[in-house]
Design brief:
342 residues; alpha/beta; ten-stranded mixed β-sheet; 8 helices
């Protein structure tokens, strides 16, 4: 009798296990800016950056379209990596169109130009009806169902390694510093998202020397499943010490047709140990064929595009699938072994 009851109980659990949701990440085309929508298995959501203002609220509309696809009616967190127009400019347009729970940022804008002041005013308007969280390295973004830890913010970085990280980084050898960067880029709010065995790294537009502080001489963030290539793939960022040190399985470049995706960065990423693929939001005109991913891995092949994006779906076991919205091409990266094409 007891064995029958045990069997019945286990069968009752099967539908719940089968219905377990994945982590979903939408890489939205905002023409060389950033807007990345993350939907946790719990259903809670976090948008990383809001693209540009203007263009008839083009970027806000593209974000809303991705949210509808993900069945998201409210964005729980909007994380602004730094105060530049291609990342924070669209926040006010977005706040007019969808409820937002909490804005997360690194604190005050350090730039004082006229355009920076205008951006500050627009951001103040955007956050007026939401909560605000100023995040420091080591803080957690309480997105239910996943672990999101801030690793860089306002020019500082974590001092304690993430779990499993902290080993000496051989990729630091021979990597020289560049000129110091006093802009908002160097103050980018970067984070590592962990869902079971899956790990996603997004450092915003963090620049070269700040990358070195984070991963040299010891790598404080460890290995990654997926790296969102920093700063749209420009060569002011993406040092070999960072990219090779975290040796991602897959790299995604959120570039524009004529912004980011520089050939030198592409080669650094392409040569990273263990890298399986590069996916891009746009074909980078400056890179020509030899410094771009194969066409099936690029969401937009033409400069005058329809704003297609990429979608990633990850399981807690570490497997994940990326789908190109333009051509419906998908590729699955299993827990171990060679990736399977669909």
């Amino acid at each position: 009798m007891r064995s029958c009851l045990a069997l019945l109980a286990s069968l009752c659990l099967l539908p719940a296990a089968h219905a377990a949701k994945n982590l979903e990440i939408y890489f939205i085309d905002v023409e060389g800016g950033q807007a990345t929508l993350i939907v946790a298995p719990s259903g809670e959501s976090m948008l990383v950056d809001a693209g540009w203002a203007g263009f008839g609220a083009r970027d806000a509309q593209r974000i809303i379209s991705a949210a509808k696809s993900a069945h998201v009616k409210k964005i729980d967190y909007v994380l602004i990596t730094h105060f530049h127009a291609d990342h924070a400019g669209g926040a006010a347009n977005l706040a007019e169109r969808i409820p937002i729970g909490t804005f997360v940022d690194h604190g005050s804008n350090v730039e004082t130009t006229k355009s920076a002041s205008e951006l500050d005013a627009a951001y103040a308007k955007a956050i007026a009806n939401s909560k605000r969280m100023i995040a420091k390295p080591g803080d957690k973004i309480p997105l239910k169902g996943v672990d999101v830890e801030v690793v860089t913010s306002n020019g500082d970085h974590i001092q304690t390694p993430l779990p499993g990280a902290g080993q000496p980084n051989a990729a630091c050898s021979g990597v020289e510093k560049k000129a110091n960067d006093a802009s908002e880029n160097a103050r980018s709010l970067g984070f590592v998202l962990t869902y079971g065995s899956f790990k996603f790294v997004d450092l915003g537009d963090l620049t070269w020397n700040k990358e070195l502080e984070l991963v040299c001489p010891n790598n404080l963030i460890g290995a990654a499943s997926v790296l969102l290539v920093s700063h749209h793939g420009v060569d002011q960022s993406n040092s070999p010490a960072l990219v090779h040190g975290i040796h991602p399985r897959v790299a995604i470049i959120n570039n524009g047709a004529k912004k980011g995706g520089s050939p030198s960065t592409y080669q650094i990423v392409r040569s990273s140990p263990g890298l399986e693929d590069i996916w891009q939001v746009h074909f980078a005109v400056a890179g020509e064929k030899q410094n771009n991913a194969p066409d099936p891995f690029i969401a937009n092949l033409d400069a005058n595009c329809e704003g297609k994006g990429l979608r990633l779906s990850a399981t807690s076991s570490g497997s994940f699938t990326i789908t190109n919205q333009r051509n419906k091409y998908s590729k699955t990266y299993p827990e171990h072994g060679t990736a399977a094409r669909l």
